[in-house]
Each structure stands twice: as C-alpha cells, then as structure tokens.
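Example (one chain per record):
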Amino acid sequence: MLPPQVSKPSPSGSSPSPQSKVEIINPDTTKDQKTFEHELQSLAAKAKSDTPLNWLRAQALIYARSATLLALLALASTLSQLALSPVYGSLPSARYHRHVLLSGMFVGWAGNLGLEAGLEKLGMKRMQCLLPLVIAYMPVVQHLLGGYSTLLGAAWGPVVTEVITFLPVVVLSVACCATWLDQADLGFVPLPGWVVDALPGIGAYAFFRGMEWLLGPALESVIGSGRFGGVVSSRVGMELVLSGVYAAVAPSSLLLWALPALLHTAFWNTHLPTSSALARVNGELAKEGFVVLDRRESVTGYVSVIDNLNEGYRVMRCDHSLLGGEWTKFIGVGPLKGNQVAEPVYAVFAMLEAVRLVEVERPVPDNEAKALVIGLGIGTTPATLVAHGINTTVVEIDPVVHDFAEKYFQLPPNHTAVIEDAVSYTSRLAADENGQRFDYIVHDVFTGGAEPIALFTLEFLQNLHKLLKPGGVIAINYAGDLALPPPRIVVRTIKTVFPSCRIFREHERNATEFAETGRDFTNMIMFCTKQADRAISFRPPTERDMLNSPSRQMFLYPRHEVGEGDLGEAEQGEGILRRNETEAIAKWHGMSAAGHWSIMRVVLPARVWELW
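Predicted structure:
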C-alpha cells in the first residue's frame, strides 16, 4: 500500500494552520466507490431499458428469427424430395425422408451448444452463416450422386443423398433455433416448470409442420408453372433461390465459397432447364442411342419426350415412370401409311380399347356414343376412341402432359380436354343430375411407380358409377405388384361399386422371376358394368376395330385372365379403400414403387433417368 498523501503546501510556502485538516485518500476505497457507482449506473440503465415494450421487442426478435429458419427449412424439405423424384420416383424419395428429418432435429436440438462451441473454435461466431453454403451445394451433390443411383438403389439412394445434403440443413437450422429459444422468457406461463421447459421444442416442431403443410403445396404449384421464368420455377432454380434467401438472412464473408457451386450448376448441371444443359444431356444420351426432344417441369413432376433412335420408338416420361410410348418407325410406312392411330409400344393401351368389345344388352353406335377418359398419358386410348367416331372427353391434371401428347404424339385435336383434378371434376359432374353421362369410361392413371390412391377410393368410384350410363362399360387399369395386398384391396373396392367384372393382366406371370424375387409387377385391367345379372363377355373384334394396326390384332382382345385365387388370400383387417382410410394401401405402395423402379431401369438405360 502506498503511504498516506499529505496535502500540498500553500503557495506562500507557510505551514498549514492548526485549524486545517490533513486529508488522507485511500486508492482502494476510491476504486470500490467507482465500481459501486458503475454498477448503480448499469442497474439504472437496465431498469430504464427493461420496459414492457423493449421486453416485447426482444422476445419478438427471438421468435421471428426462429420462425424464419423453420419456414425456410420447410421449403428445403419439400425441395429435397422434388429434386430426387426424377431419379428415384416420388415414393422412394419420401420413404425415409421423415426419418432423416427427425434425426436431424434431434441432433440439432440436443447438441446445439456443442455444435456452437465447435464452430467458435473454428472462428465462426454464427452457425446460421453455414446454411447458404449448404443449400448452394445441394444441386451439385444431387447431380453427382444421381450418377450412382443404380449402385445405391431406390432404397439407399435417397437416404444417402439426403444425409449429405438435407440433414446438415436440418441440424444447423434447429440448432440455431434451440440457441435462440433458450433466451425466450416464458416465466409468465402458468404451467409446471417441466412443461414450460418443453414448450419451445414442441412449439418449434408444431410451427415447422404447419409451414410444411402450408408452404409445401404452394412451392409445388410454383415448380414448372413458369410463373417466375423457366429457370427460376424449376427444382434446381428454386434451390438457388432458397440459397439466396438464406444468404440475405445470414450474410457473411463465407458466401464466397458458394461460387464454385454456382458455377457448377450454371455450366455442368444437366438438370437445369436451359438449352445448353439439354444439349449436354443429348450429348451424353447419344452414346446410348437416345435423344430428348423436349422437357418441362410441371405439376405432376418432370415430364420429357424421348426418342430411341436405334429401335425407332418414342416415350413420354414423368419423373421415374413412363406414361406411354409409340413406334415412330412405323408411321407412314408401307401398309400403315395414312393410319389414324399410332402403334403403341405397350400392350396394355391396346387392351383398354376392348371396352368397346364388351357385349351389352343394347349396343350404342360409335357415332352416338360418349366416352370419358381419366388420365391421358400419350393419348393412345383417346386417339382410338376418336378414330372410331366416339365423342371423347379427357380429364388430365397436367397441362404439360396434354401439350406434349398433342405436339409429339398422335392425339387428335377433336376431343374435349378438361385440365383439372379428376376427383373435383367427377364429383361436380356426378352431383349435377342433368350433367353429362357416358357409355364408356376408361380409368387409366399412373405415375411415380404407384397409382394415385384418391382415384381408387370407394367415393371416387361411386361418382364414376353415377357418370356411367345404365348399359355402359368401364375399364380400369391398375399397375402394381399382384403379390402385395393393394391389388386385392382395389379389386374388392371396385367390385363393391360395380357388381359384374372380369380382370385381365398385360402378360402372364413369369414363374421363374416370381420364384426368385417374390414380385409380380404388371398392369391389370378390370372390365365392369352396372348389370349384376349379366356376366362380362366380349364380341369378336372386326377389321374396323383393329384400325389396320398390327398391335391391336395381337393385343386388343383380352387374354391372361386373373382368377379370384391369383391375388392371394386376404389378410386380417383388409377391407375396402375409403377416402379417409387410405393407410392400408399407402404403406404398401413404397414396396410396389421400388419394384417398378427396378423395371424402369431395364426398360430404359440408367443414364436416361439420371440425366433428366
């Protein structure tokens, strides 16, 4: 301690007077006083700032930042599945998506402090700054891993891709939210402490699910709409837009590292909907003997028209399935010159036309008949019905499918096109007592390796029953694995509505393959009427029925009938398919879609599917 300080002598140099006091100053006491005063000032400032308005602002900022990241995560969740569906199909892409999501949420919420500390050691003060980079590299990784899809398979391919691309987005987003929500003041909530502690996590997940439910369909409606331009409204384009939004939310100098990803996407990613990317696709596919004539992203998926130059046929693709195909090498050749209809590649489309061969009590001349076709594909069946002079209405949900069918396939313009969801259209028409009714209904819907479940429910089929005239005939195509329960459930539901039916499959079961794999994937067609007392029979086809078509001569008349025992024994709890009870069939569609995925990789080379 320093010695006491004596007061400075007066300017005159005289000694202090007896009345004056000697002032002793202790530096430690002065320091304590200053510290105390500083604390008082801090408390006063804090008391002044802790107004209800400032508290409300601070809390609102916490929730706003968390809500922003969770809403963006909901968009990333939808985009991740959409980007995988052209390579793996929509059902395989979604099969384990929820598992990846929940795992990432658990890791992010439980390990936010450890993750934050680890990043701080690396010199990164804000976790959210990594998010724009991760999103920017999503198209790169998806494109590169797509080339290994055959090796990975439909089961592991989507999982591996999402673990590398989507899982980091989940972990980082949830970890940031957990850190921010730890600062939320919930002392005013009149609930037990353990409930209050759980509220941020429960609330965050509920908010995310709500955003997924709200923003997911909205994003899907934008994809392929061209609303913001062809590139921006694509899957890859929206991933880049999402990366830009993340960059605006969490700007940092790390964004420079996104430049390589942007360059790869712009110049090497074949999934980008640009003319240069399409040229790169066709450069690769030329080695396989294929060429993509046109491609577009739309409401039901990625749609393209592909020519096989070596064998001379054309197909329309939607995501990881084919909507139909026709032989181009026979158009205008020899005796087929001038034919009204094309030669279908797949026999099932010729079989559907046998709806006209079903014997009814009072046959209707073609020029007086009306037909309703649900699901267009490339337009093989509608084109045939029109060629026979039948007034034909086609209900197709995807405008791009209809556009491509008219532009690249032989769908004639003299038909009535209804671009609408079939459920809404048939429900509205069936409710109108004076509405149009039909002599023939052809139900042919299929995409992504599975049938749209809503179009096989009891309620939908009951609407079709109302739309079918008393002496009319309906043909329903169902594609799936006949070794699984869904075909049994669908058949039982159809027979509940239409009492008289016969079922035929596209080809005979391959006994060897079935014994080895246990799979029996095929198209089956049910021909039904409303007349319970009249068995289904077919009249012999005439030359006019064949339309000078070799394919129809071979496949028009139904063969390979499916008996009651061919679908296997019903399992316990199997019933009929109702609108609000679709879980019984939905859980099996993943297995059926995986089998369909393998078949598609045989029908067309892997590179056709991988390059989009």
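Caption: Residues 326 and 344 are 4 Å apart (CA to CA).
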